Amino acid sequence: MDLGSAPITLFPLHTRRNALKRFFALLATCAMLLGLTALFSPQAAAATGCRVDYTVTSQWQGGFQAGVKITNLGDPITGWTLKFTLPDAGQKVVQGWNATWSQSSGPTVTAVGADWNRTLATGASTDLGFVGSFTGSNPKPTAFTLNDVVCTGSVDGGGEEPPPVPGTNTPVSVNGQLHVCGVNLCNQYNRPIQLRGMSTHGIQWFSKCYNNASLDALAEDWKSDLFRVAMYVQEQGYETDPAGFTSRVNSLVDMAEARGMYAVIDFHTLTPGDPNYNLDRAKTFFASVAARNADKKNVIYEIANEPNGVSWTAIKNYAEQVIPVIRAADPDAVVIVGTRGWSSLGVSDGSDESEIVANPVNATNIMYAFHFYAASHKDNYRTTVSRAASQLPLFVSEFGTVSATGGGAVDRASSIAWLDLLDRLKISYANWTYSDANEGSAAFRPGTCNGSDYSSSGVLTESGALIKSRISTADNFPTS
Ligand code: IDC
Fold it and tell me: Residues 471, 438: contact at Cβ < 8 Å?
């Protein structure tokens, strides 16, 4: 093409200059408007982002169960709605947990955060799940939104993990050496705190569940403050190999310490129920672990798991012989004393806390154990705890979401009523159990401890998902 001969219409010079001026003025106005919008728009300041891991944990003819793990990668949120689309028209949500689930008509599924998991700090996760039905095929959804923001993630639980929590700002680094103040557990700033965490199952049976990977998950993913080490004395426990069990407990204390978690050393007496049966063993064991761990800030001693079939006077007598052994080696550690009727404050024996209030253990810096199993122990136990909490320092060193057998179905309503009460009273707790035992109280599905994944939602039981969603919320420990 011959440009030289192309017909070009030229405006007079001043007209062109004015056009250019108008063009630049327009550009400037646009830039200003864009700038102002960015400055004044409320969205401009809030960072958003999310990750969703979707795992089909089991599938059978016409039905399936799915775990959904949400991680907030943006600024803290105080409420959330998760949405996704089920790809096949025959797929339906039947029943869900840890959120309010709905699928009105069509393929869009909505899950709205529940009271206990609607607040998610930056990096915090919560596990939900549902049982679904399907007719044709059962493809996995691939696109998720949280509060209308598109989430990254995977449908198999693999892929990129959220960044690990650094080793600073751990429960132990923030709170330091604990002590009892009034009826509370207090930190180094003399402020009441609540520790929330997990108990092992019997370490004689489930040692495969307590390793670097599972403890990492407990500290970083569950954000547990506490790791209770349940060392049975009978049932193939301590009495069969005192040196071996003592050293196993010490190494678990070290593993908790390395991750900034408190460790409760639980002398897990159960049968026989009179702790005096094990008095000599208790003295030997506690003399050894107290001397070895005296300089640590993360150790709490629990001297008798669940006295039963025995009077309060006998328990008190046991405590007043074991506590001085601990104090001689480790003067400043908190000690938890079991109570009558399987640590029910006597309620399971038809008594209550008044016998302790009238005749307390003659020692300082101690707390009294209260244990419950949500499906078995309900309102009358809660009433006792509410009343006793104003008179005695209480520590829920063991509880289950199921029946007192350790099995059966999760009683969600009772578990939530209990956890709300403990939160309100700032009573610390440890859940039975961080294990893959084949019973409803276990947090992990059977076989989990044969692998190395303790973090994805697919390995959790219903109890595990509920408890993890409660434990992994922010602690906000006071620091002055
Ligand atoms: C249960 C275990 C179960 C085991 C049984 C006997 O879950 O697998 O067979 O002990 O050792 C407690 C005890 C705790 C019990 C638990 C559930 O402290 O040892 O564990 N429970 O029965 N008190 C109330 C309930």
Answer: no
| Contact (Cβ atoms closer than 8 angstroms) between residue 227 and residue 261 | yes
Q: At 316, give phi and psi (nearest 5°).
A: -60, -40
Q: Which one, of 226, 233, 239, 229, lies nearest residue 201 by Cα?
A: 229
Residue among 382, 360, 312, 352 nearest 180 (CA): 360
Specify the pLDDT at position 431. 99
Give the residue from 383, 325, 377 showing the smallest Cα distance to 348: 377
Q: Is 146 in the pocket of ligand 1 (CB under 6 A)?
A: no
What 3-state DSSP class applies to 16? helix
Indicate the fold that domain 50-150 takes in CATH.
Immunoglobulin-like (2.60.40)
Residue 12 dihedral angles phi and psi, to the nearest 5°:
-60, 150
Q: Which residues of the chain have a pLDDT value below 70? A: 1-45, 155-167
Which of 1.10.3720.10, 3.40.50.80, 3.40.190.10, 3.20.20.80 is the CATH number of 164-471? 3.20.20.80
Catalytic (active site) residue 302: no
The model's pTM: 0.71
Residue 266, ligand 1, Cβ within 6 A: no
Question: Which residue, judged by its Cα, is nearest atom 17 of ligand 1?
Answer: 406
Q: Is 398 a catalytic residue?
A: yes
At residue 342, φ and ψ (nearest 5 deg) are 60, 45
Any residues with CB less than 8 A from the CB of 416 and at least 6 apart, and which?
A: 116
Alpha-helical (H) ranges within 140-208 are: 171-175
Q: 120 with 80: CB under 8 angstroms?
A: yes
Residue whose CA lies nearest to ligand 1 atom number 4? 406
| Domain range summary for the chain, segments of one domain joined by + | 50-150, 164-471
For the chain, percent of residues with pLDDT exceeding 90: 74
Average pLDDT along the chain: 89
Alpha-carbon gap, residue 85 to 94, rounded angstroms: 15
Task: Give CA separation, 45 vs 38, 121, 212, 447, in Å.
Answer: 9, 16, 39, 45
Question: Which residue has 């050496």 as its token pair?
Answer: 177
Residue 6, pLDDT score: 42
